[in-house]
Amino acid sequence: MNKKARNLALNSIITLKAKAGELLGLKDFTLDAPKTKDAQEILKNIGILSKKVLFVVAKKDENIFKSFKNLPKVKYLYADYLNPADLM
Q: What does pTM read for this prediction?
């Protein structure tokens, strides 16, 4: 898939997800320590603990990665590696 088609597909899927209310953005999200229990509590408070979650981050954060990697329905991904298949 060429770059132009990939970007068009990403934009289309993101737009559809946003219109359907399936998109949630968090600003300045950090964790003090890598604890899966804290990550699970965050998802529970948001109301998405039992759903499949794609966690896309702009930059590497070891605490976030280690906290969410053990949760069964959570996939952690850097924004640079986001592709249309991940969003489906």
A: 0.76
